[in-house]
């Protein structure tokens, strides 16, 4: 119990520290100030901590042997890989002096995290029984059409009009794959929320919706970052980066909440 | 069908979702189910009607994922012909089969 409070305090403390730092940058820092780079290169630690905690908590749920455990492991790896992606770019910049070399090794981690999120949502859906609740024409139609709509939306928002001839093959693949991959996991998260609404109750109801919301928020952060990059308005420590801090925090809190649910259910006696 | 077999199947199915530790712990929390070894198959039932034990077991799992947990239990029962399990299924769940 004490260790849970300590971990929660650590996650909240880190989030508050980065929030205050970002607020300071917003109010007092200029566009070229190096404090922006320090923020941008270090906030991934929130994801690193969250991912590490999630992997530990997953063992409570029997780790890879249960759907809930699998979903926690996959989300944790997704979060941890976000941290590794950012770390890779920081190492390139601070040790090798290479600035924003896109695409780089860091993209291996960032791109892999999308797959972890997709399968993480899939196992949340399986835990919540929503994969077997897709019965009836209306639900089946929504289950097939909605992800396609999200992919189409992502295409027109982030891919349409891209000048593919100006970039290399890997950059072009990533330009296509990032928005599509992100559209897949967010549409799965929204769909699971819809299907779970009348099905999931008990101690896990709040937790299931919370982790799905964290996932949807991550998509909002990813999309804002992509949009600002395409518009060439992105800069270090801008709103998209703070949204990443919030999304990593939400996911970390969701992991702690899953631990709390486990302890509640395990300790409860009739 | 032996009630122990059906109950072990339900616990096993739940353990796929929430893990074996919690699935067994929730079963034991009913006060009517225990295990003579670490294996789920070695389930021992308390002194009560099988329908009552299964009802308590389903209620215990319902506290985790609500209706979704009940659906999992019902799904296990559906795998068996109704004539085999009719005397084991609580009245509240018969309509779902």
UniProtKB/TrEMBL annotation, chain A:
Domain of life according to the entry: Bacteria
This protein's name: Histidine kinase N-terminal 7TM region domain-containing protein
TM region(s), chain numbering: 12-30, 42-59, 71-96, 108-129, 141-158, 170-197, 209-230, 242-265
Assigned keywords, A-Z: Membrane, Transmembrane, Transmembrane helix
This protein's record includes keyword Transmembrane helix: yes
From TrEMBL, chain B:
Domain of life from the UniProt record: Bacteria
Protein name: Uncharacterized protein
Source organism of the structure: candidate division WWE3 bacterium GW2011_GWC2_41_23
Taxonomic lineage: Bacteria, Katanobacteria
